[in-house]
Write a structure and sequence with these properties.
Structural class: alpha/beta
Number of strands: 7
Number of helices: 10
Strand content: 15-25%
Radius of gyration: 16 Å
Shape: globular
Largest sheet: 7 strands, mixed
């Protein structure tokens, strides 16, 4: 299944558009069912020294992951990067950097870099632009769609329960997702410098955890 990156509906609408608001609700449910944020939170907790230096989440969306980390880890710096406005009710201790992701990454600091369903928005050559920024982190934890026919098939079952934009964007996201080995290669993670682990889930997620050797 060839990787194809196409525009998603919600990326072309203002943040307060009804389709965008409905999509946010759908994504919360999908993330819960896939266990994405639970997986990221559980695995980065294995690296307390990197965690203490702070967590940066790119494409933070509603800030759900960082809200969870704020409850679990008192005192660690938390930074969200996203083009969307700061979500209402986000705890003040979570910094919100509303800029292009590459502009943010050039300045933000932390020990852990996390992303949930974000990198599939980028073409292959754009993914390579992340390389110099990743070098400044000790742990990298990404969750993305698993680009296989089985994920497309399974997604059919949830389509009747989501909004118009999510129906479109979910299938676009899967076709722009990744298979084993693609993320480390595109991101330039050298196996002599990084301990890299990838796993897939029956819920359609491809998960990559990389830590400094």
């Amino acid at each position: 299944m060839q990787r194809v990156v196409e525009p998603e509906i919600i990326d072309q609408l203002p943040p307060d558009h009804p389709d965008v608001r409905r999509s946010r609700v759908d994504l919360k449910v999908i993330n819960f069912l896939m266990g994405n944020e639970r997986w990221i939170a559980r695995h980065i907790a294995q690296y307390p020294e990197a965690l203490a230096k702070g967590v940066v989440e790119i494409g933070a969306g509603e800030g759900t992951l960082l809200r969870r980390l704020a409850r679990q880890h008192a005192g660690i710096p938390l930074t969200a990067c996203d083009l969307a406005p700061r979500p209402e009710g986000l705890p003040e201790r979570i910094a919100w950097d509303r800029r292009d992701v590459f502009e943010s990454l050039a300045e933000v600091k932390g020990g852990v870099l996390a992303a949930n369903l974000f990198l599939h928005h980028f073409e292959n050559d754009e993914l390579e632009q992340f390389r110099p920024h990743l070098e400044r982190f000790e742990v990298i934890c990404f969750n993305e769609p698993y680009r296989v026919e089985r994920t497309v098939w399974d997604a059919q079952f949830i389509l009747p329960f989501v909004g118009r934009a999510t129906k479109h964007d979910m299938m676009v996201s899967i076709r722009a997702g990744f298979v084993h080995g693609e993320l480390p290669e595109r991101l330039g993670l050298d196996s002599s410098k990084w301990r890299i682990r990838e796993e897939t889930t029956w819920r359609g997620g491809l998960r990559m955890l990389a830590s400094r050797i």
